[in-house]
Amino acid sequence: MRLDSKLFLYPLAVGTIHFAICVALRFGVVASEGSWSWFVLFLLDLPISIPLIMIPVPEPLFTFGVFGTGWWVWLTHYFVKHNSLPATPDIRSADP
Fold it and tell me: What's the pTM value of the predicted model, to 2 decimals?
């Protein structure tokens, strides 16, 4: 898989999974007790979740769904972009 497609597909996949977890928590697919359901997502989104809990939004789906998903998309994009190594060495640059 080329780096260009990884830069698009991996962050999209991670962001989609994160947002699906947010929707599942919001609509009660995952059984939980009160606001404790969002605690797991709070831990998952550290360190970005610390400033997120200070935003006075009554709906955690908006806070974690938008900003938390954006955090994971950016983080995945960063690691894919900066930690990708070529599959094979470039033969043309080798000394004769």
Answer: 0.75
